[in-house]
Amino acid sequence: MPIAEDPEPRPSEEPKDGTDGKDPFADLVLDEEFVRAAAVKEQTGRTRMLAARWQHTPPVDPGGRRSVNDGPRPRQRFARRARPVDPWGNPRPRRGGRWRTPLFVVLTVALVLAALNVDGLRSWYSTRFGDGSGGTTAGTPVATVAPETGTPTAAPPAVDPKQPTVDRPWAGSPAEGWPTTVDVFGPEPGTITRIGVFGADQVAAQVDLVKRYLAAANLDPRTVAGGRPEAALAMLSPEGRATAEKALASPSRDQDPTGWFSRFDGRDAIPVGDTYRLQGRISVEGDGKRGVLVHTDFTFVYPLRPGPDAAKRATAPRPSGPARPTGSPAPGGGGVAKPVGLLTPAADVAGDTRTARTVVRRVDTFRFHDPAKFNVERDRLYFEQTASEVGNSECDVYDGWYHPQFDQFAALGGASSAPSGPPSDPYDRSQELRTDGVCGTVSRS
């Protein structure tokens, strides 16, 4: 299709606008230099949109944006960050914080449970990571030994026989992983039933009373260090307390306080730390007269360091006396003492850092009588039967204390009673308690 072109002006015609008839934009080039040199520039679409909006709703400065003219940013307390905002000044929601609420709930529950069972938490920690008294070297796990649920069938396995020291008092002992509190031992409260005239709650309270007595008589640091066992005495029956106080005041072969309480004379043996280890079991049954019998069988282990008079005592003559009585006498008697000095002293360990251990096993039966048939006091303990034996304590000494032997003083030579019985393992709880009165030795301590 032909295109009509603009005809050129005729030579005879003069332009009416006063020009020579030439197009003024014919030589104009719209390049980049021309665009940059323009005096008026076209606004972007977003600029025109915001300008139209701000005519009706002026913008508000949220205070979160800063410019180079604002000066240095002021320091904020506790490193708080300004809350982020969008271009219109609206605060943006924080992200990634949804996981914090469940974590805080779990931590709060854990802290509450730990606070309700501080003793259990301490026992759990000490049996897995040591008790803070140097039981294991740093980073070495301790094999945890659970409480007994019945009579063991064999002795604990042998461990590396290392010389115990003040920093590592449990080295070479099977008790290193044993519990440190009597509270972890059964029977569980939910398994206790009615026995005789006592309901389940009453029997559970009787078991708890027995546990508290065992702790006060054998685990209280003040009692073990030689203090007067006031807490344990307060739980005994009037007759039992009178007998125990008489034994404390005037120890003798027939009434030795160590038959009741674990005690050491600080002049020749000082406990290392205030945490000791134990293993055993508790059982409950009827007495046949509508009462309750609570049976306990526990082995307590005590780490000790020499006292200021330990060397003097090692060379002092010892009185020899008759053997301890046999059978199961009244509380405070019975059992057998066993001196021990079998650990080979290490050549590179100073004598004042070596320690020893004394192992005490107690087998007791507590009776709770029917109050309708017997004149008894409530919440007091009455012994039905008791017996004990000790590993690493001098024989035929009845002064109310345990006297362990330390290897670093064995070479000094003393006149103590020579052991005559066969060696035995004080950690072997599969055997019955010895009550023959023979002064023997032990295979380990």
UniProtKB/TrEMBL annotation:
Name listed for the protein in its UniProt record: Uncharacterized protein
UniProt-annotated stretches for the region Disordered: 1-26, 41-96, 152-183, 242-264, 306-340, 412-445
Basic and acidic residues bias (residue ranges): 7-25, 426-435
Annotated organism of origin: Kitasatospora purpeofusca
Bias-annotated ranges (Low complexity): 314-329
